[in-house]
Amino acid sequence: MARALHMLLMLSSLLLILSVPSSTSLKVDFYKSTCPSAEAIVRRAVNKAVSLNPGIAAGLIRMHFHDCFVRGCDGSVLLLASTVGNPSERDHPANNPSLRGFEVIDEAKAQIEAECPETVSCADIIAFAARDSARKVGGINYAVPAGRRDGRISISEEVTQNLPGPNFTAEQLISNFARKGLSVDEMVTLSGAHSIGVSHCSSFSDRLYSFNSIVSQDPSMNPKFATLLKSKCPPRSIGDSTNPTVSLDASTPNRLDNKYYMGLKNHRGLLTSDQTLLSSHSTRRMVLSNAKHSSSWAVKFANAMVHMGSIDVLTGSQGEIRRRCSFVN
Q1: Are the CB atoms for 203 and 166 separated by under 8 Å?
Q2: How far apart are CA 265 and CA 268, in angstroms?
Q3: Could you tell me if 146 and 61 are in contact, meaning their C-beta atoms sit under 8 angstroms apart?
Q4: What's the pLDDT score for residue 20?
Q5: How far is Cα of residue 231 from the mean position of the Cα atoms in its chain?
Q6: Partners of 198 in beta bridges
């Protein structure tokens, strides 16, 4: 079964890659002659980190998503602010402290630079690391077209303008992903990444205590689930800075699988942007299908990750190849 799924994933990824417009200049085995060990180095770094802390896999997959949705897949999410008063994407609350795995990217980059100086972009390393994370915790493997170049600009406020929020409705999510060239089905499919990782209580506490002017608790949430969440996320008093985290999918928190959609069926979606996928007529059918067909969802997830990885990429002589991922050259 596992071997059959692997073959199906690879064939499906190849067919998608062939359909991606050649103008992107991305291709599989891009570094075959210039840095043949690049992908192996990234995979070793990811495997080591995830073995020590499975949560890193969710962080790296999310990092790729956050990178691609702001200025395209150009590694801008990695840049530290260059001057005081000019925060970068990395400083935005959606990325700090939410994103994890920066040290994995840095480790892989340092090893690659030692073998192939100024050859492999940080943007490509993120894409490889996201793929390797999906493989490590979900058995989802796919070929990654590469050739991205690194951007030189990173602006914190652009995160708010481009990333979907935890309280988005299905219609808002559909519009947000459409602006990036992704379909409704791809949006629902990529939402399955919430099968792993955690969320801070502040991202969903309104569903528990201040849903609207009529009811305090979101009626679409399973009552027993709400009670459990309240025990983990008690009401915050004025001046209380604590903000605990809760698994996005408690059933298999460290396994990238379709259990996320089964949770939505049982009204155990953690975020508004999760549960809305079941309640909306535009996406409900897709949720039910993904909950029923795990292998089909895995193939679609691989394809959607490849497609997402081509958003507004810099190629050729655009941008640069950073020597250190946190700083422009």
Answers
A1: yes
A2: 7
A3: no
A4: 40
A5: 28
A6: 247
Question: Across-strand partners of 149?
Answer: 314
pLDDT of residue 8: 53
Number of neighbours of residue 17 by Cβ within 10 angstroms: 19
State the catalytic residue, choosing from 64, 66, 92, 307.
66
Cβ–Cβ under 8 Å, residues 38 and 120: yes
Q: Compute the distance between CA of residue 203 and CA of residue 216 in angstroms, rounded to an integer.
A: 16
CB burial of residue 328 (10 Å; 0-12, 13-18, 19+): middle
Quick check: is 66 catalytic? yes
**Predicted TM-score of the model (pTM):** 0.92
> What residue has token string 């990238």?
256
CA 295 to chain centre: 20
Q: What is the pLDDT of residues 24-50, one digit of tens each?
A: 589 999 999 999 999 999 999 999 999
Nearest by Cα to 179 from 311, 67, 87, 301 = 311
What tokens were used for 96? Answer: 């700090």
pLDDT under 50 in the chain at which residues?
1, 13-23
